[in-house]
Amino acid sequence: MAPDKSKKAKAHVVGPGAAARACLMPPTQDELAERPAKEKAGSDRPRAQLTTVPQTLAGTVIAAAGTVIAAVQLQQAKNDAERAKRDSERAFRESPEGRLQEAVRALMRPRIPTKMPKEQVVQRKVIADIKSRISSWEEHATVVTGRFGCGKSVAVQEALRGLPGTYVHTVENAEWKSTLYEKLHLDGPGMLEELFTRVATELVLDPEALSKVPILVLDIPRETTQGMSLVSNFAKEMSTDQMGSAVHVIVCASSAGTAMTFDAGGAPRQVNIWVEDLTEEEAQQMLELKGHAEDWKQFTAACGLNALDLAIACRDYTGPSFLETTRRQQEATAYEEALTFYKECKMQNVDTVSLVGANILEALLANRKREDGHGVGKPGTAAEPKEVTQWMRQKGCHPIIWHTTHKKYKFASERHAQAAAAILNRRRC
């Protein structure tokens, strides 16, 4: 019987090194027959996996893209809504009603002076006088004036501190009304009247409001020379006539000359408040607040009692020699002003020229020697106060004042009185 070749082939595999030899031997018939089935089975598995993975990945990508698109659309919708809201709010703010409401809110905020904190302000009697006028006001404009640098603006601002319903406007030129409307974002007088009416309604509802009517302060600087007739008419309309006493107009005039150009319909239709220079006690308090408690007398000796002069000296102070220089400069200025007034202030009458300056200085010096020293009225000088104050304003020369409440001429300061006495004594010699 012939030997089985397949068994011989397998026998060659058995034994040491069989695995190595088997790798070199050709496959048997049985192995060749089984190979296609195994290859088919092996190839089927990867194909199934390759088909499943792309389908799953595509679904994930599509879902993620849908989420992103939805988020973008939602954000766009929010942006559109916010933009539409902003456009609507801006359109309302720019409308007449929106501007009126904003102006009411602005005026109803408590007034806080920005130039000087409360703890740095000397609490003068005139501040209490202005507050009293505000709380008891029923009608007519209030005119606050005094010598240049006496502290008028500070007094008015301090009286308004913390009050709602107030507005301060600077009268710079004849176009001041247009500027007022522009700053309040109003179209004209009709909207201004409506503004004050609404503010008055708010003030009536405020139990703590000192004033139950709006307060409009018209601050008139020294250099303003135009628009006073408009100020007078405006104050008359707002505080007396057309508005039915709906607005308390306070005119803060830089000088008596400015104040005397104000005319709201005669003396009965206005109340004058005069701001004097500081008293010695007030000057001491002011200088203590500015760090000069020990040498305050040296400051008043050099500068007098004018609040602005003292404030400037404190600001520029470098030592005792500075005060001596300041004293000499102020004496020279006072002498120059008195001499200019004495020589140049003249008024043309029908057929004569009146030496108004000389007459007023002589009358004031005589009053200091023989009478009360509180000044002289118009009859004692034959000089029209309005003309005299306007002359001084135009020349920038102010050795005297016209006191709007006492109705008298007075020396602007003790230094001016001394200068006038020296000038007249030399003229007599």
UniProtKB/TrEMBL annotation:
Residues 32-47 have a biased composition (Basic and acidic residues). Residues 1-49 are annotated as: Disordered. This is Uncharacterized protein.
